[in-house]
Amino acid sequence: SYELTQPPSVSISPGQTARITCSGDALPKQYAYWYQQKPGQAPLLVIYKDSERPSGIPERFSGSSSGTTVTLTISGVQAEDEADYYCQSADSSGTYWVFGGGTKLTVL
Amino acid sequence: EVQLVESGGGLVQPGRSLRLSCTASGFIFGDYTMSWVRQAPGKGLEWVGFIRNKASGGTREYAASVKGRFTISRDDSKSIAYLQMNSLKTEDTAVYYCTVGGASWGQGTLVTVSS
Hints:
The complex is a heterodimer of chains A (about 110) and B (about 120). Chain A has about 110 residues and is mainly beta. In chain A, about 0% of the residues lie in helices and about 45% in strands. Chain A has strands at about 10, 20-25, 35, 45, 60-65, 70-75, 85-90, 95-100, 105. In chain A, the strands form two sheets. In chain A, strands 1, 3, 4, 7, 8 and 9 form a six-stranded mixed beta sheet that branches. A three-stranded antiparallel beta sheet of chain A has the order 2-6-5, with no helix packed on it. Chain A is globular and about 40 Å long. Chain A starts with 8 loop residues before the first strand and ends with a strand. Chain B has about 120 residues and is mainly beta. In chain B, about 0% of the residues lie in helices and about 50% in strands. Chain B contains no helices and eleven strands. In chain B, the strands form two sheets. In chain B, strands 2, 4, 5, 6, 9, 10 and 11 form a seven-stranded mixed beta sheet that branches. Chain B has a four-stranded antiparallel beta sheet with strand order 1-3-8-7, with no helix packed on it. In chain B, a hairpin with a 3-residue loop joins strand 9 and strand 10 (about 105). The interface of A and B includes residues 95, 98 and 102 of A.
């Protein structure tokens, strides 16, 4: 079955730039979406269609795509950005959703 | 404002059934595909399945882990999506969320499958 691969954890100091990657063979053909999830809360969409930012999401969140890897970049990380981040896309046919395993972002 | 409210969760024995509901407001429900996503305790997000809107045929897709046991349906007149879960297993224990294209999510409802 199709899988998206994320690093389990990323640690960063406040004010620095965090980059979280997500790899999958179908990513050149299918859009990627990024979700932020804080403990006890539902996921929150922070990036859609690889690089689009929903209204209300701070400009420090951005997304990019290159080949089979997509990247969520958080510039000038703040303490409130500490959360789990999940990428999501579809299989090559565009039928089934797939989530990455999630990356725990720790702000030191 | 888009609102999604899940209900119907609870404790159920293995092999039994449960039906979850997702009541929507703030948008034209019938125009959208409705999806279900679950999260086992301490684990990541797992897509369960979705039901397309009627204009797209109202067809359904399911994850392999639930296909043949779970059924998604919708009542556009009531703006409700359902997740019928049969032959439940302990590994189905999770918080179940409904979502509209990932852009809006409910608060989730906990399903615990245990004897």
